[in-house]
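Entry:
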Amino acid sequence: MNDKAKEARREYKRQWAREHPENVKAHQQRYWEKVAAAKIRRKNGQQDTASAEEQAWRMASLKTQGRKGCKAPRINLAFTPENHEFIRVFARATGRTMTETVNDIIENFKSEIPKGSTSQLWDALQLSIFEGA
């Protein structure tokens, strides 16, 4: 944007503000209330929070890491070098993250298990865990 266009935009905003002082005042009030609330939260060590819709969207799209209190369950996994390389290359080739790739692999695996057999599988896993302890 050139200088003349910027100046024209500024002049339009000044004129609008002169004609709508109640809107400007209300906007400034909302702005400074938000700034003050955020400052208090930061001072208390709190993070901004997202709306319920934003949280649901972030959880579904895995866009959650440290963003406004939306946190996905996490787990630290160790892979063999071959599996790690496969996940890395496959993720890069498909334009996805490694997390998205691993989640897709798990979803595909889960879809291959016959319906109703997951509860039997879970019972068998719990038995084997408790028998080994």
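The chain has a mean pLDDT of 80.
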